[in-house]
Design brief:
The complex is a heterodimer of chains A (317) and B (556).
Chain A: H1 12-56, E1 83-89, H2 96-110, E2 114-120, H3 140-148, E3 156-159, E4 171-172, H4 176-184, E5 190-199, E6 202-211, E7 219-227, E8 230-235, E9 246-252, E10 255-259, E11 278-286, E12 294-302, E13 308-315
Parallel strand pairs in A: 1-2
Antiparallel strand pairs in A: 1-3, 3-4, 5-6, 6-11, 7-10, 7-12, 8-9, 12-13
Chain B: H1 2-26, E1 27-40, H2 50-53, E2 58-70, E3 73-82, E4 95-106, E5 110-117, E6 131-132, E7 137-138, E8 141-148, E9 154-163, E10 177-186, H3 187-190, E11 199-211, E12 224-236, E13 239-248, E14 263-274, E15 277-287, E16 330-342, E17 354-366, E18 392-408, E19 413-424, H4 426-430, E20 438-450, E21 455-466, E22 473-482, E23 486-494, E24 506-516, E25 519-528, E26 531-535, E27 538-542, E28 545-555
Antiparallel strand pairs in B: 1-2, 1-28, 2-3, 3-4, 4-5, 5-8, 6-7, 8-9, 9-10, 10-11, 11-12, 12-13, 13-14, 14-15, 15-16, 16-17, 17-18, 18-19, 19-20, 20-21, 21-22, 22-23, 23-24, 24-25, 25-28, 26-27
Classes of the chains: A alpha+beta (317), B mainly beta (556).
């Protein structure tokens, strides 16, 4: 305490007055102190606020080059997990060429570990007779998948048909790279050997699947055909890809042309998977497109929730 | 002993009951709910077939929100259901549950909220979370918010959380984490000598940052993207000036095609207001300012920033056919609006005066030049481009000229006439690549006749003339109201000028509704034309549909 009674005699009245005076003074000083304390408190809070400002301002300015130099790399020793990218697209979809560029960049990065199928389906794939967009690139299987997976916006895709949450499989184009990188990290659960022989317009396909570990659930094998280098008109809004608003001679790559064994393939593995067993299946399929640019895609997927566990691709010729 | 125990328990129970009763007396519960149901039927001329409906004849959007308040404490919860969502809403909304739940404690100077919340810093250029039921839009933050008023006139805010993304719960690295700070200083409240001044000054500043993991195999992406903004509002008598400038560091995203240029947003408002006259002038420039908590998202979701539109939001049927949506990659524009009331008893004003409003707004693209690190513009993985701040490009996104007249002729009759002239770049704004720019003229008449103080008849006649897109339209509406409870209305929009003969369709609707206190029922039957609905610059595509639409809403 910093106030004391003065030394000396005092009558009671004076003492009371003095007390009152001292008390008033004390009160004033206390108020002043409280105010000072409040100001200090406010200053502290403001300082804290600005310190937080500084803390938050830890932003990252990226310096060129802005692209990764080594990319994700690709491991091809032993049996590795390949990844399937399904690009849902259409020739009147203005943003779809940009998605095709992303798919192309990723294919460059991952090589044969990434298999791309461009599925032409939905509103933007509708043919418009009498216009530049009169080609019908849709397929019955593509249409079924389009409905099953609930595509509404294009371009969008599926990465190994891995659900984001139950029933939600669709991945926007700018997340393809991230999802593919995640899938590439997974261990291979099956090995698929694919061989083709083309003769007289017909491709003979032999597929052998071997499961590398004990698996639960049931699985199916799907075999389909893709074709590169089909040329026709495509709407486009990205001048980096080509002319806008229409690229008259757009080169379509990885276009899905049809399934060999049905939209959902077939369960050739039975209800109980045997590890190490060689499951072989043969097909014959008439190629309607250009066999020099056509490929066979084979993948094995879990029937529920449709997730692809391995995929391979081989040229028809 | 047993008797004493019984007596003690009885007294305790009574005391608790009294306390609970007291608490209940101090408590307040408010809420609202809405249920929108749609029944679709095939309509072959509109291209709606059984196979398109695919058995999903019914659609339902509904919500119920309850807010509980007890003294300084309040809490709220909102249940939503989209089973399935009504046509035009994002199908990722399908489902039901509680996406919004919060609790808050507030004192005179301090407030703390946990759970889901909505917040806005300044004009929202850096941060605005909000919900718009008619669009199915909700970017609420889920986390914590603190507001503090250390001295009168100073408001500090801090927010931290993740944004709502349909029904997807936040999991590690599924999307970004948002943090923000805002300070607003009202000088008139802070400085005693300015308390009664005619000069009113408010200053503000904010900082927002988002964190998102970089696991992209192609690009080196910034994990922390920071942004800052400064703003002011100055009022001098009848004049008011306000402005905000925001800057964001490199934020490559799906929207900006993965370019690394920093972003800027600037808005300036000047207004003058006196009895019978109001003048508003706005200038806005946006340059690479899409700011989302997920850089890969391209749809209307996860927006951190809000870029306010400066074009007029039209409500008449044909006037709203070409609504503008802010272009986050770049736009520069201005708006000038004059509202004038021609005085009563003047030659033009007549007995009741006449309201005249003229609005002109134009939004152009910004000018982009190569950034130097590449010969082309907007190349992914580069700085993208450079741009002069005040340069308008020749590319007009939208021009909107509106003349609006409203006159009351007698106690029973009043009328509105409106003329609009629009230039609308449908290719850029709605993604109709290759479609020519729409030039249109729109004329609207809206008349109301009051039979009695409760019964009135309103009718509209509208026409839209254009040689582009779907050609000419005409529309009419009749609405009979028995206030405060009943209304019945019939309308038709006829696309008689559609260049495709089969698409010269009538889009008719008949609707009736009943309101009692805060509860409203409305039933509509008819056709909904394909179109775009925008609220506050955020738009959604509405596909054509045909059928019954029932809506029930209430609040308490």
């Amino acid at each position: 305490m910093d106030y004391l009674y003065p030394v000396g005699d005092m009558d009671k009245g004076n003492e009371a007055k003095y007390d009152e005076k001292i008390m008033t003074k004390h009160k004033e000083r206390s108020i002043s102190r409280i105010q000072n304390y409040k100001h200090m408190k406010h200053l502290k809070i403001l300082s804290l606020f600005f310190a937080l400002f500084v803390l938050f301002s830890a932003c990252e300015k990226v310096s060129p080059p802005f692209k990764e130099s080594n990319g994700g790399g690709h491991d091809t020793t032993g049996v590795v997990k390949n990844v399937l990218l399904e690009d849902y697209t259409g020739h009147t979809c203005v943003n779809c060429p940009t998605a095709a560029v992303i798919a192309h960049d990723l294919k460059d990065l991952y090589g044969e570990r990434l298999v791309v199928m461009a599925i032409h389906a939905g509103y933007f794939a509708d043919p418009h007779p009498g216009s530049l967009f009169d080609n019908d690139y849709r397929t019955p299987s593509g249409n079924e998948w389009n409905t099953f997976f609930g595509f509404q916006n294009y371009p969008s895709g599926l990465i190994d048909r891995v659900p984001n949450s139950p029933g939600d499989y669709i991945v926007v184009k700018d997340k393809w790279g991230i999802k593919i990188a995640d899938e590439m990290e997974k261990e291979a659960e099956a090995d698929i050997t694919l061989s083709t022989d083309f003769s007289g317009g017909v491709v003979s396909i032999d597929v052998t699947t071997e499961f590398l570990k004990a698996m639960s659930g049931t699985y199916s094998l799907f075999v389909g055909i893709t074709e590169d280098s089909l040329v026709s008109a495509q709407k486009n809004e990205n001048p980096e890809v080509g002319d806008t608003p229409i690229i008259n001679d757009y080169v379509f790559m990885h276009m899905f042309r049809g399934s060999v064994n049905g939209t959902w393939g077939e369960n050739i593995f039975g209800d109980a998977i045997e590890v190490g067993k060689q499951y072989s299946q043969s097909y014959q399929y008439t190629i309607t497109g250009n066999p020099d640019n056509s490929h066979v895609v084979a993948y094995v997927y879990n029937n529920d929730p449709k997730t692809v566990i391995q995929v391979v691709e081989k040229d028809v010729k | 002993m047993k008797k004493i125990l019984f007596l003690f328990l009885l007294l305790s129970a009574l005391s608790m009951q009294a306390q609970v009763g007291e608490l209940l007396k101090k408590s307040e519960v408010h809420g609202s709910f809405e249920a929108d149901g749609m029944y679709y039927h095939p309509d072959v001329p509109m291209g709606i077939t059984d196979s398109l409906i695919d058995g999903r004849n019914f659609a339902f959007n509904g919500f119920a929100e309850v807010i509980y308040t007890l003294g300084n404490f309040s809490a709220g919860v909102r249940y939503e259901a989209y089973l399935p969502p009504i046509a035009g809403f994002d199908n990722r909304l399908e489902g039901s549950g509680i996406p919004y739940m919060w609790a808050s404690y507030s004192t005179k100077k301090f407030s703390f909220t946990v759970g889901n919340f909505y917040e806005q810093f300044g004009n929202g250029l850096l941060l605005r979370t909000y919900q718009e039921w008619t669009l199915g839009y909700d970017n609420s933050l889920n986390g914590a918010r603190v507001t503090y008023e250390p001295v009168k006139g100073v408001i500090l805010k801090g927010v931290y959380g993740t944004q709502r993304f349909f029904w997807n719960k936040y999991t590690k690295n599924s999307r970004g984490i948002v943090k923000g700070l805002d300070a607003e200083l009202s000088l008139n409240d802070m400085v005693k000598s300015m308390a009664d001044s005619k000069l009113r000054i408010t200053l503000g500043g904010s900082f927002v940052s988002k964190y998102q993991v970089d696991n992209d195999p192609i690009y080196k992406l910034p994990r922390n993207v920071g942004s800052g903004a400064a703003r002011f509002n100055i009022g001098i008598g009848k004049f008011n000036f306000s402005s905000e400038y925001a800057h964001k560091i490199n934020d490559p995203s799906a929207i900006n095609h993965y370019i690394y240029k920093p972003g800027d947003a600037f808005i300036f408002n000047a207004s003058y207001s006196q009895r019978g006259l109001g003048i508003l002038a706005v200038f806005k420039r946006i340059d690479n300012f899409s700011y989302k908590s997920d850089r890969a998202e391209t749809a209307n979701a996860l927006d951190i920033s809000y870029l306010p539109p400066i074009t007029e939001a039209h409500t008449y049927m044909l006037a709203s056919m070409y609504p503008y949506a802010t272009q986050p990659n770049g736009e520069i524009g201005f708006q000038l609006q004059v509202n004038y009331k021609i005085p009563r008893k003047s030659k033009l004003g007549g007995k009741y005066g006449m309201d005249v409003s003229v609005n002109f707004s134009q939004i152009n693209d910004i000018v982009r030049k190569p950034a130097g690190d590449t010969s082309a513009i907007n190349v992914p993985g580069t700085l993208g481009y450079t741009s002069d701040f005040f340069q308008f490009s020749d590319h007009i996104f939208m021009r909107d000229i509106q003349i609006h007249l409203h006159k009351k002729f007698s106690r029973k009759f009043q009328a509105t006439a409106e003329y609009l002239n629009q230039v609308f770049d449908i290719a850029s704004i709605q993604g109709h690549a290759g479609d020519p720019v729409v030039h249109n003229n729109i004329v609207i008449f809206d008349m109301t006749y009051k039979f009695t103080s409760r019964k009135s008849l309103r009718w509209e006649a509208q026409a839209l003339f254009t040689e582009q897109d779907k050609g000419n339209w005409t529309a009419a509406l009749v609405e009979y109201t028995i206030s405060p409870h009943w209304f019945i209305t019939a309308s038709d929009q006829w696309n008689y000028g559609n260049p495709v003969g089969d698409e010269q369709l009538h889009y008719y609707t008949v609707a009736g509704g009943y309101s009692i206190k805060t509860t409203r029922f409305a039933l509509t039957y008819g056709r909904q034309r394909e179109g775009v609905v925008c609220v506050g610059g955020v738009c959604r595509q509405v596909p054509a549909s045909s059928g019954f639409y029932l809506t029930i809403s209430s609040s308490f």
